[in-house]
From TrEMBL:
<dbReference type="InterPro" id="IPR004294">
    <property type="entry name" value="Carotenoid_Oase"/>
</dbReference>
<keyword id="KW-0560">Oxidoreductase</keyword>
<comment type="similarity">
    <text>Belongs to the carotenoid oxygenase family.</text>
</comment>
<keyword id="KW-0408">Iron</keyword>
<protein>
    <recommendedName>
        <fullName>Dioxygenase</fullName>
        <ecNumber>1.13.11.-</ecNumber>
    </recommendedName>
</protein>
<keyword id="KW-0479">Metal-binding</keyword>
<keyword id="KW-0223">Dioxygenase</keyword>
<dbReference type="Pfam" id="PF03055">
    <property type="entry name" value="RPE65"/>
</dbReference>
Amino acid sequence: MRAVLLLGCIPRLHGNTHNGPRSYARRAATRSNTRSFAGGITLKFPETPSFTGFFAPSGVEATVHDLTVIDGEVPADLDGAFYRVAPDPQFPPLSGDDIWFNGDGMVTQFRFSKGNVSLQQRWARTDKFVAEREAGGALFGAYRNPLTDHPSVAGEVRGTANTNVLVHAGRLYALKEDSPPVVMDPHTLETIDSKFDFGGKMTSQTFTAHPKIDPRTGEMLAFGYAAKGLCTRDMVFYTISPDGEITDEVWFEIPYYCMMHDFGITEDYVVFHVVPIVGSWERLEAGLPHFGFDRGRPVHLGVLPRGGRAEDIRWFSAPTCFASHVMNAHNEGGLVHFDVPMAKGNMFPFFPDTEGRPFEPHEAAAQMTRWTVDMRANSDEITMTPLADFIGEFPRIDDRFAGLKNRYGWQLVQDMTKPVDLPGGRSASGMMMNTLGLIDLETGETQSYWVGATSSFQEPAFIPRPGSTAEGDGYLIVIENRLAEMGSRLLLFDALQIASGPIATIALPFRIRQGLHGNWADAAALRAAA
Ligand code: V55
Ligand code: FE
């Protein structure tokens, strides 16, 4: 409602001319950073870091069978699919530049069967994608700022489905935390529902990109923030049955509006971290990025007993810091452990300090840290214990241990002792993720694999070995960005022997754009989607 009322402010807030949606598509292409579509339309993207080099838009929708295994062997009994998603803008941005987080969700499926791998890649058909394709150019503006949109799309769902993809209850969910799930066909990658609402049961406006599947029950646990509208403190926690029905919801308010990007589950609790990546309508009206880092605010941890109600939530506090992704959480009685890559300061240069302090790369270095709170104690303290020396992000586990005490954690590591031999090799946080890391939480030992001076890694995912039950018995799948040659490879590692290097190296026929998250779905999960 508010967005609609404020639309008249666009020209005043943003000094640039509001081009008609079609003007971009017709602009002559004179430089290298262009993309041609059948039909002769050529797009011109900005010559900025978000749109050039390895970050050049891809726009490739393709099906390719029988990929070439150039080294090693794909285990013949591996049967299932690895899904992952990347922001990949369909059109040049309305404002002349954009952040990577705002691109249209391009979903990739790597299907493994009988030692063969095939790939399929398709954009999610979000409402945004469809409207812009019809118009032939961008209609939606800045990241999570509807005030920057073309008036013709006022009030439309702005989701890009660009952050995570996973299969549950036969549905392939493509997720962006500002909007409802997009449901796709896991086999064809066709978009089935651009704003899925669980048969009317989901009344939240948003759904997290980081739902968890409880391995003990098969339930999907999820939440939405800004659930009653942009920048509101309203949260909802959903329990979704193994067959995909919402069976419970808990509504509550968080201490202050912030990016609630991820959360943790344990056997007995659900854990929400409030970190000071804050936003407000005032920022949007001023044309600032949706979020900024406010180091004046403390961190809070909300702990909700499983099956509890809003009044059962207990809040804990700690001095300001940065944490976004959650490796895992577990509880030992009333002791709740929550493991996160944690940095002293802001990790997102594109969401700048709210007081105007310059970005400090050394304060953006994240180290895996255990946050522990005691539900039986009177204290609201959070105890913080470092778990490993790695600097990095994108933590993963053997998801059969989600919410349980896990022994192994994998992550991307920035090894600054290693040479880097390329211009502009960056990852999500502007860092060069050149190494895979494995932490053994039982022994404290670590293992790593450096990808070389001209490549970087995307986030890995764990694949259970078919028939196995032991934690870590399986593979790690990861896309290698071949930055020097603007290409990509798909690597498989023995998950507990990453230091030995890949057991299979698969050539990919085109560059796969830098992505966010992905997940494995085994053959049984795919059959359920038949
Ligand atoms: C993240 C990514 C997003 C987003 C919010 O921390 C947070 C990652 C790709 O989009 O909208
Ligand atoms: Fe994420």
